[in-house]
Task: inverse folding
């Protein structure tokens, strides 16, 4: 449907009141119910049962057929549009922080509960001072962080412990995997001195739980202060080999507020637990892909940093199939012009990543495990895969996270066979739109096929 013309001017297509309600019911409410900042287990299980993401994608496909390529305005008191075209996603993510600011009202309300001065919710001026801290400390442009030797040693040590426990029971379950991963995160980020500081992780989880309620929950200021004092204590040690060491070398101004920046690292590393566990489920159910991954692992010394491109693509596929940041939000800081008409200042823009990652009307591999998708050259007109966002606010931790998760998976699969203990994923069937990571369980035993 073309946008109606008013006195010769074009307007962005407007969803009807009913279609707006359907977007709220099928896209927005399920996102909020699962918890945007920390996931609620029961709600994630329910979302899998309802195949919530597939239903949301189907609705947005229908709305694209009805209203065209958008951006589609919703009929709400808050000005809000949903993006339906790859080119629009590229434009919005590339043209930041002005006129498309990552610091939306909703994100500010949520993240302020634990990191009010973080780069993601900073003004354009503050962002200019804070973003270089992340890029330098995280070595964001390098596939392998310049200090990744220490992370490699840590991952092997922690996986030794995990595999010892797993070998005793023959089972790998979420709680043990997640506890191990969070220890890895504290050691890699803050050093061995933080290995046992579960209080730090627990305080952050408690603050994130309030962040799920955004405007609707009062800030727990005392807890937030305690968390940042603890975190600052770890940063002050600047332990060699940890990211805190590199943070201490990164450029700062009085306005950088390092603990406010590093809180995001600890928070964001959590998503890697989900991505890694789901990637393991994919490999456990796709023998041909597992064979290729093992050929890569067997050919290198995992004791030193390795790029492991195939395993990286597997982790990226896990994030394409089940993005851990499904809603990428922007807010306009000025009126902008589109093919269909103007968009006013102060409009909230939703990129719903699963719609683009799983759009089977444009992507034949949409519901298949297809790591080779990540080897293709992409263009502006190409389908956007945005698990790490794009443009100036693209995740500066993407390489660190892809390397650490790939290595943990490599270590698990090098000399163990892993079977998924239920039929939720099959290599000869479409993959589900939603996958509850908390309930994945694996049988683990010695590897039967010898290394090549
Ligand atoms: C699977 C793991 C991760 C995923 C999927 C992920 C995804 C994302 C996404 C989508 C954004 C941008 C949000 C937006 O455009 O509004 C982002 C931003 C960010 N991420 Fe990650 N991230 C992950 C892990 C990490 C890790 C481990 C770190 C640090 C060690 C990190 C640091 C950051 C920072 C500092 C930002 C803010 C960037 C800015 O605003 O300029 N992330 N991440």
Result:
């Amino acid at each position: 449907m073309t946008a109606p013309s008013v006195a010769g001017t074009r307007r962005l297509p407007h969803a009807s009141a009913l279609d707006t309600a359907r977007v709220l019911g099928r896209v927005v409410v399920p996102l909020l119910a699962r918890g945007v900042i920390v996931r609620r287990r029961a709600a994630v299980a329910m979302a899998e049962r309802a195949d919530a993401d597939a239903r949301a994608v189907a609705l947005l496909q229908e709305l694209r057929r009805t209203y065209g390529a958008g951006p589609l305005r919703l009929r709400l008191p808050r000005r809000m549009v949903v993006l339906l075209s790859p080119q629009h996603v590229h434009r919005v993510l590339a043209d930041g922080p002005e006129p498309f600011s990552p610091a939306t009202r909703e994100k500010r309300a949520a993240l302020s509960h634990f990191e009010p001065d973080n780069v993601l919710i900073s003004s354009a001026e503050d962002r200019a001072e804070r973003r270089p801290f992340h890029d330098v400390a995280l070595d964001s442009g390098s596939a392998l962080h310049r200090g990744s030797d220490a992370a490699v040693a840590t991952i092997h040590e922690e996986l030794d412990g995990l595999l010892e426990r797993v070998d005793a029971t023959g089972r790998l379950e979420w709680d043990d995997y997640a506890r191990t991963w969070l220890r890895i995160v504290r050691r890699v980020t803050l050093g061995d001195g933080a290995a046992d500081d579960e209080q730090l992780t627990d305080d952050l989880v408690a603050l994130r739980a309030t962040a799920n309620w955004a405007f609707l929950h009062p800030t727990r200021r005392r807890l937030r202060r305690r968390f940042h004092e603890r975190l600052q204590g770890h940063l002050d040690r600047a332990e060699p080999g940890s990211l805190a060491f590199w943070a201490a070398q990164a450029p700062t101004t009085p306005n950088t507020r390092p603990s406010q920046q590093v809180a995001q690292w600890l928070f964001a590393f959590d998503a890697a637990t989900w991505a890694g566990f789901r990637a393991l489920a994919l490999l456990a159910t796709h023998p041909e892909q597992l064979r290729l991954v093992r050929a890569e692992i067997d050919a290198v010394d995992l004791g030193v940093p390795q790029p492991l491109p195939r395993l990286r693509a597997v982790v990226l596929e896990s994030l394409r199939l089940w993005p851990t940041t499904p809603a990428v939000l922007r807010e306009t800081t000025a009126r902008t012009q589109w093919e269909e008409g103007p968009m006013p200042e102060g409009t909230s823009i939703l990129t719903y990543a699963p719609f683009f990652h799983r759009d089977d009307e444009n992507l034949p591999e949409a519901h298949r495990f297809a790591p080779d998708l990540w080897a293709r050259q992409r263009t502006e007109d190409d389908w956007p895969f945005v698990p790490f966002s794009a443009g100036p606010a693209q995740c500066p931790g993407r390489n660190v996270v892809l390397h650490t998760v790939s290595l943990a998976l490599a270590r698990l699969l090098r000399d163990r066979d892993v079977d998924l203990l239920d039929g939720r994923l099959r290599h000869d069937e479409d993959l589900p739109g939603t996958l509850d990571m908390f309930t994945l369980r694996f049988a683990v035993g010695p590897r039967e096929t010898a290394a090549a």
